[in-house]
Amino acid sequence: MTITTRTRNPWCLARRAERLEPSVIREILKVSERPGIVSLAGGLPAPESFPVAAMREAAARVLVDTPREALQYAASEGYAPLREWVAQHVRGQGLAVKPEQVLITTGSQQGLDLVGKVLIDAAAPVAVETPTYLGALQAFTPYEPEFVSLDGDDDGPLPQAFDALARAGRPRFAYLLPNFQNPTGRVIPRERRLPLVNAAREAGVPLLEDNPYGDLWFDEAPPPALASWWPEGCVYLGSFSKVLTPGFRLGYVVAPPALVPKLLQAKQASDLHTPGFNQRVVHEVVCNGFLDQHVPTIRARYRAQRDAMDAALRRHMPQGTTWHAPHGGMFFWLRLPAGLDAMRLLDRAVAAGVAYVPGAPFYARASDPRAMRLSFVTLSAADIERGIRVLGAVLHEALNDVAVAAP
Asked: The whole model's pTM is what?
């Protein structure tokens, strides 16, 4: 006798889970790992910049000096000496904060999630730049916000955009990346920062300031942080991933005292604490001024790669392509000639041997199909030249196809 059973999926997904989407960048990175592909897609730091020897020596000291403490559960707020170091470090951005305002997170991506968890209700408005960091949109989306685009120009959001926000319905916060923004690479200039903060304060819109790239300047250091002008109205996010190593997943949140307890409770509910061993190792590395010597070597490397990509773009891009060479960070933001769609061209580019990130996923609302993001920091000058040459050939061919198809 054969018994048959009918199986069905017993799981009922939460509404927030239905809103989760795979990372476009991570999916493209899988494709770019194929042999022979020049990847201009990933926002990964250069592995040659990782201070392997310093990390190895620091790990050994931690395991000799405080092995049991390092391998035990740790405080949810973070390792106290590292929090003290962060409070001192952000003084370089104009922030005068106490260690009690610092929360060590599992990467700055967790900081985005914690802020979303604490501040966003379903259908609550959240203001973002146009375009903005894809990872922030992913972090906020499960909390079901209504994204509102901040009007801006090549220098970032306009102060008057906050007047419009106040009239339309005050957002829970505005998410900004003032320094070498991902994806555009732009910097909000000094002369715009104070008017922008004053407009946000007048409109009653708090600011979430994300600064993962601020130390990676090529020509001059960026202006003081937005939070330096309105500390009680800003949450500031930072990261060790771009200046040391992303594999340790260490970031930090600097928040007003009134917000710290709820962020801490959200952190406890999420993962109890960030790995204590990682925090102790990183503190051993940074506590004696190591970054003052190390970060300039990263800047020099990335500046040379930036120059190589800018030169290659000038040689190989078709007429009508626009971009600005960034003054820091890791990315070029291109706008293709009329008639081209970066998302539709991706498969053709990968088949030709080059990968990039289409710009559309970086928009919360209406996107620009002609935009694309290119990363330069993991490639040699020769690979940059080869990748841009292949990309240029793909774009020239696509433009010819458009011309032939035109009536």
From this structure: 0.94
